[in-house]
Structures are given as C-alpha cells and as structure tokens.
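Write out the 3D structure for:
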Amino acid sequence: MKLGLQIPSFTWPAGTSAVASTLARVGQAAEEAGFASLWVMDHFFQIDMIGKPEEPMLEGYSALNFLAAVTKRIRLGTLVSGVIYRHPGILVKTVTSLDVLSGGRAYFGIGAGWYEREAIGLGVSFPPLKERFERLEETLQIALQMWSGKVGPYNGKHYRLAETLNSPQPLAKPHPNILIGGAGEKKTLPLVAKYGDACNLYAFDGLDVVRAKLEILRKSCDAIGRPYDEIERTAIGRFDVGSSNSVREAIEYCRSANDAGIEHLIISVPNDHEITPIELIGKQIIPVVAEFGAR
C-alpha cells in the first residue's frame, strides 16, 4: 500500500512571506519520508471544511510546478481540478507542462467541480450538474486525443477544437495517469471505468461506503469489459499522529482501508509545516503499510 500527502492549507504561522519556503520544506520532507505522491487542492478560495474562504489559497498548478522544481521523485497532482475552471485544451497543456518539467511525475486529477461560491466569486460559469458532467466527459476525450499525438478537430456539445496540437507530449507513457475524483454511482464511477487510470474516494464517509463504491466501480468495469485491476484505487483521509497509540491506530486504519480495496491512501496531517509529523509517518508508518498487499 502507498501513502500520499495532501497539502490542503497554506495558513502557516510564518505568513505569506514564508509560504514558498515552507511549501518547499513540506514537499521535500514528504519525498524524503517515502510518500508516493504529493497533492494540492485545485481551489481558489479555501473550502469550509478546512477553514475560512478568505484564508490563503495558492493556484494549484503554480504550486505543483514549484514543487516539481524542489523535488525529484514524488508524483504530483491536484485533488482535483474542477472541469469548469479552465478550457480543456489549456488544462491539458497545463498538465502536460507539469509532466515534462517534473520528469514524468504528473497525475491528471479531474472532477465535475462543486464549489459554487468561488466560481461565482471569480466570475467563472457554474452550469448545472448535468452539464458539468457532460463537460467532464468531453474534457477526458479531449485529453486522450491530445495525448495520443493525433492532431485534428474535436467537435463536442460544449467544446470545439480545430486542432488538438500538443507539443511537447508528456513524458509519462502513454500519458499522465487520469485520476477522476468522486463517488457518484450513475456518472462518476462509470466515467472512471471508461476513461480513468485511478479513482479517488472519500474515506471520511467510512470504509464500508468505500468498499461499496469500489464494488460499483468493479461492476462498471465488467459492463464495458475492462479489467478492474487496471484502475488504481485511491482515497483521501487524515492522520493526526504524535503518540504511539495514534501511530498504531493509523497503521490499523491503513490495514482496514487496504482490506476495503484501497491501494493508495492520500492523507493530510495537521501542522504539516512543523515537518515532524511527516518524518514520523515516514519512519513508523510508511515502511509497515508498504507490506500490505492489494485486495
């Protein structure tokens, strides 16, 4: 089993002038600790479950490109980019650039988007959910066409591209892994089965829910004749380490998540800027959970 680290907040004690240096230290510490991946949210206002909307929030791909420059091995992605925020052709170029500049380490995290306040606040169109899912599927089709090397038109309901030129192509082959966030049984999980290389579920909903969602994903794969095991099963959670009890609890939680079918657990930790929690996870948790086998 692999662990990833999400950085959901940039509200650090040293303030804005130290955001860059703190972000670099967190990213480097995560890599040194043995985390498999490093993630930021693709939001522009802070979300309510983390903090207040006016708290500091970096643009996701700017932060990832910065992290690419200060790390060497850890994989990088957004959890996840709302499809409404960028035109698909520009988004694919953005992810491709991250992949090239990081040496082939990019994930393409993508979802339908949900945070209406930031969209309206910044003047971004926020169509109804049905249309957002239509746009998500077209974006996935555009990404695969651009990453195939095929230069030609794309004509969808919402997006029309005359020339899907994408040079340079990504270093990751055949393309950066497409991670689709969300757990909707009628739309999201079938899209994962059809287009995704990875899913991302919400472990806070409970591992019984995660297990049930993965069974829906398996059935969606079976329906189109795709091997379920081709899809990397990820989930997002949180650890608060600092005592022997919490370390043991974290390990047991990872074991339970793995038993539920999760291969890659992406966690946030409070006080990540202090680095100590990251180092503790690297020393006492990552080596143990690495021995857990995929279910």
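The chain has one domain: 2-289.
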